[in-house]
């Protein structure tokens, strides 16, 4: 069961990454929605429409992804939505399996052994996910994470992140460098 | 384990969902600049200020977990904590007129310390930056403790299927989202609701304790309480006195030394008649503390103290509170956690932008200001998730909750002497080195004593309890020596002149 323990440890990292991605995308989404017109406050609701989301996904895959802020916003909302659904799936599947899960003597022994191996293993035992269901959730999460990283890079996420960490590097619409301005003060 | 039904979960769920909706609604109103996003300068009503005061200071972990636990061990000795809080409120009221000039200029704790001590200093040689670092450490640890309490509470309520990590992350996500949505103004809006939910929950609990105390309800002996072979050994008089003095040195200066107090001071429209609202807020904090201590004493006097179970859980179990009232009580506790965490996280975000990145306060460009707000939101979110990780680590380490709370809150003690000198002495401007040394030494002593206490095990509880006391002593001695040196040096220079 060592492989499972390793897998579970990786999953914990994914779990953190997903939450970080969720949070980052969500805060960008709020901010960009604020930047656009008043009506775009409702854009979060419009992005829930699958038609709109898949339109954007096709645009993205076809290489017609445009750098317009609003399009990027919708893409991020789509990814945000997928992340929410998958995380929800992971938790809900844990709930349902837990209600019907009666550990056999072997499973109980495995759980005991796993709990001495890693933190993540204890988490998994607490969730009581059957291995097949767990693997499915794991693969979905892996796919989501890769997809969100690709989209985030295309949407300029690394640059945005650097600007968030040090906002004095931000250049305003006049092109003046805020860092030099603030250092001067 | 508490016996929850689906309706109880609905009641508990209403708290985070409503907080999220109120927070997201508040972001529709634009703010005039990045400083106003965090400080809401001179725009907050007295009701909003009291609401924020109560929200930030009725701390689930420090009051309901720590005071119940200590009450079950020490009895009414724990009343030293609310007593210290009242003294602290009086101290704050006495010093408020001296804080007012700084608040008038929109300066919070760190900027006030900086403007007094940091003439010509930059970077890590400034008192301001170190003060900011300690505030962030104390507040992130404080929020971590709150999330720790939240995870514990939800596990008691019966969600073992969801891992502790997930629970901590979920609390962080909810709290960070409504906190970043509207800044301090949004927090004030959400805190009206959260404070209401808190007091509905804890007063309901108090009614059940009173009914049991007067014989209207018969306590149920839970399984875990029944298996106790012997009650824990009662602390000695010396232990109790050390606890009381330690509590005194943590809780008396806490309001004055906390960034959130100054932040509320800057936000408050009314700065003349501050006594009424502050005393009212302090009374509510003391009421919450009294209910927690009564709960601990109830467990103690009924002989229900268990080594394996927290007395708060033992007491709620023994009271056999019916559904859906039990949902209301737990929802109140969840509201307490969120209302504390939101304001502390907002303070941390502001401290980074203001004291570490030194962003210009009067930014004229709306676009740049918005970008600064975005950065502040990012840091607030990061701190929320760091707090969630700390909560998870705290559960794994399995230290006594009181010890962890002591570490988190003892860091505030380092500010007291520099602040008192800054507000009361004209010589403070020449005491940069003393202030910096006093803070560094006090913090070092506090951390070393706590580490020694942890390494030596449960027998050296007195070392941990006395850490804030010794830290205060070291800080006071350093500042006094610095003050004497400044007088001597002034006299010498006068003679030379």
Quote the average pLDDT of chain B. 86
Structural class of chain A: mainly alpha
Summarize the main sheet of chain A.
none
- How many domains is the backbone of chain B divided into? 1
Beta-strand content estimate of chain B: under 5%
Helicity of chain A, in percent?
A: over 70%
How many beta-strand elements of chain A?
A: 0
How far apart the termini of chain A lie comes to 60 Å
Count helical runs of chain B: 20
Q: Detail the poorly predicted runs of chain B.
A: 226-230
Task: Indicate the CATH topology of chain B.
Answer: Hydantoin permease
The fraction of residues assigned to DSSP E strands of chain A is under 5%
Uncertain runs of chain A are 1-7, 32-54, 57-71, 94-103, 114-127, 177-185
How would you state the average pLDDT of chain A, rounded? 52
H/E series of chain B:
HHHHHHHHHHHHHHHHHHHH
Net shape of chain B: globular
Q: What is the string of helix and strand elements of chain A?
A: HHHHHHHHH
Number of helices of chain A: 9
What is the rounded Rg of chain B? 23 Å
Count of DSSP E strands of chain B? Answer: 0
Tell me which CATH architecture of chain B applies here: Orthogonal Bundle
Account of the 3D structure:
The complex is a heterodimer of chains A (185) and B (497). Helices cover 77% and strands 0% of the residues of chain A. With 185 residues, chain A is mainly α. Chain A is elongated, with a radius of gyration of 21 Å. Chain B has a single domain, classed as Hydantoin permease (Orthogonal Bundle), CATH 1.10.4160. Chain B has helices spanning 6-26, 34-39, 46-57, 60-74, 80-104, 109-117, 127-157, 164-213, 223-226, 237-257, 259-267, 275-301, 311-319, 325-356, 366-397, 401-410, 416-424, 432-456, 461-465, 467-496. In chain B, α5 (80-104) runs antiparallel to α12 and α6 packs antiparallel against α7. Chain B is globular and about 80 Å long. The N and C termini of chain B lie far apart (76 Å). The interface between A and B is large, with 37 and 34 residues.
């Amino acid at each position: 069961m060592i492989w499972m323990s390793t897998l579970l440890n990786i999953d914990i990292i994914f779990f953190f990454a997903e939450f970080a991605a969720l949070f980052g995308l969500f805060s960008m989404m709020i901010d960009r929605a604020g930047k656009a017109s008043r009506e775009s406050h409702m854009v979060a609701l419009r992005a829930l429409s699958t038609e709109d989301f898949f339109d954007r996904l096709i645009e993205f895959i076809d290489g017609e992804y445009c750098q317009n802020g609003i399009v990027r916003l919708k893409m991020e909302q789509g990814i945000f939505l997928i992340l929410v659904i998958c995380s929800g799936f992971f938790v809900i599947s844990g709930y349902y399996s837990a209600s019907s899960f009666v550990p056999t003597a072997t499973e109980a022994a495995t759980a005991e052994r796993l709990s001495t191996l890693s933190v993540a293993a204890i988490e998994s035992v607490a969730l009581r996910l059957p291995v097949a269901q767990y693997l499915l959730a794991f693969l979905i999460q892996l796919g989501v994470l890769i997809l969100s990283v690709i989209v985030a890079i295309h949407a300029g996420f690394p640059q945005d992140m650097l600007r968030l960490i040090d906002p004095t590097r931000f250049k305003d619409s006049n092109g003046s460098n805020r860092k030099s301005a603030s250092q001067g003060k | 384990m508490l016996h929850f039904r689906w309706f109880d979960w609905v009641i508990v769920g209403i708290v985070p969902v409503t907080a999220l909706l109120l927070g997201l609604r508040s972001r529709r109103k634009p703010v005039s600049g990045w400083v106003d996003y965090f400080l809401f300068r001179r725009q907050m009503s007295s009701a909003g200020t009291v609401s924020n005061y109560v929200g930030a200071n009725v701390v689930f972990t420090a009051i309901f977990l720590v005071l119940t636990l200590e009450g079950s061990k020490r009895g009414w000795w724990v009343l030293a904590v609310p007593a210290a809080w009242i003294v602290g409120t009086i101290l704050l009221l006495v010093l408020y007129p001296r804080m007012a000039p700084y608040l008038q200029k929109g300066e919070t704790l760190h900027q006030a310390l900086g403007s007094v001590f940091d003439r010509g200093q930059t970077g890590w040689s400034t008192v301001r930056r170190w003060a900011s670092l300690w505030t962030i450490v104390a507040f992130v640890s404080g929020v971590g403790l709150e999330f720790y309490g939240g995870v514990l509470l939800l596990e008691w309520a019966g969600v073992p299927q969801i891992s502790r990590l997930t629970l901590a992350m979920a609390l962080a996500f909810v709290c960070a989202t409504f906190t970043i949505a509207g800044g301090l103004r949004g927090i004030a809006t959400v805190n009206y609701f959260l404070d209401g939910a808190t007091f509905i929950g804890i007063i309901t609990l108090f009614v059940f304790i009173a009914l049991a105390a007067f014989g209207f309800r018969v306590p149920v002996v839970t399984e875990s309480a029944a298996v106790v072979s012997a009650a824990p050994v009662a602390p000695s008089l010396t232990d109790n006195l050390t606890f009381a003095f330690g509590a005194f040195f943590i809780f008396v200066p806490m309001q004055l030394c906390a960034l959130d107090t100054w932040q509320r001071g800057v936000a408050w429209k009314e700065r003349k008649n501050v006594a009424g609202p502050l005393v009212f807020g302090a009374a509510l904090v003391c009421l919450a503390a009294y209910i927690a201590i009564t709960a601990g004493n109830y467990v103690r006097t009924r002989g229900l103290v268990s080594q394996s179970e927290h007395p708060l859980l033992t007491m709620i179990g023994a009271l056999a509170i019916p559904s859906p009232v039990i949902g209301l009580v737990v929802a109140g506790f969840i509201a307490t956690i969120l209302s504390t965490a939101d304001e502390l996280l907002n303070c941390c975000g502001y401290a980074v932008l203001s004291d570490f990145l030194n962003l210009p306060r009067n930014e004229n460009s709306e676009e740049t200001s918005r970008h600064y707000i975005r950065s502040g939101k990012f840091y607030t979110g990061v701190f929320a998730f760091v707090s969630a990780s700390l909560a998870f680590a705290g559960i794994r380490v399995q230290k006594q909750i009181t010890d962890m709370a002591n570490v988190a809150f003892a860091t505030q003690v380092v500010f007291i002497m520099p602040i008192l000198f800054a507000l009361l002495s004209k010589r403070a401007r020449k005491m940069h080195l003393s202030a910096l040394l006093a803070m560094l030494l006090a913090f070092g002593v506090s951390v070393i004593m706590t580490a020694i206490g942890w390494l030596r095990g449960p027998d050296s509880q007195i070392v941990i309890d006395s850490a804030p006391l010794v830290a205060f002593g070291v800080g006071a001695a350093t500042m006094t020596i610095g003050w004497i040196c400044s007088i001597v040096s002034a006299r010498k220079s006068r003679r030379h002149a």
